[in-house]
Amino acid sequence: MKPISLRSRRLRGAVGVFTAGLCASAVAAILLLILGYVIREGIGAISIDFLTQLPHPVGVPGGGVANGIVGSAIIVGIAALMAIPIGSLTGVYLTYFGRGSFGSTVRFLSDVLSGIPRIAIGLFAYTVLVAPLGHFSGFSASFAFAILMLPVIITTTENAIRGVSHEVYEAALALGVPRHSAITRIILPSARSGIITGIVLAMARVTGETAPLLFTAFGSQFWELNPNNPMAELSLQVFTYAISPYRSWHEQAWGGALILILMVFILNIGARVVLKPGFRS
After folding, report:
1. Is the C or the N end of the chain the one with fewer CB within 10 Å?
2. pTM of the entire predicted model
3. What are the residue ranges spanned by the domains of the chain?
């Protein structure tokens, strides 16, 4: 085989760097284009009334999505309370006790769960909770969101714990520290930033989901703080307004979409902050 000259290697390297930079620029341009368009269409709907008032009937000017914002916070919050303990403990188990076929099966099922269509998760929540109880509810939406959050939390927890030097765990055991104490008092605090990052990213992932809500929360035009009843949710309101034939609702749909993007953006910024060395210390 004829050796490749230094000039040829440099040329190929330059072409590779240029191609990678071009692809990265294209992705960034698409993202900025989407953000710019949503901001242009939705900024006009943003106001204090839009953020603090309930939806108005068709033909009545004004109205807002305050109940949707509050409903989103309640549904995602309950989902986090359900998913965080299960996901984190599963990640711990897979790290230290999941070396056999059972652990491999759990990892495989977690990967499969992350790829299941969202609407199928919503239909499952409908079958498990909505149909037997005979009514829609915010809690059933939280159940569906918790299922969507689990794969992210499991994977990030396992990776965060594996990022802690195994010698630390072995040293704790050598000093006579019980295994459960070594995990809860030494390993988990050391992996805290990675675990919190996974939790925040999981919450950001479900914040804009709509498909599961069609079978679970169902929506509401009123203030509803009881998760056992149908609840408004911001992404569901955006969907409802967007498919309506009314121009005023279309404008509010763009405003709601802008709020959703800001919420996801804030959650992702929070994940970045958690990853900073200063936060870890």
Report:
1. N
2. 0.86
3. 6-45, 50-280
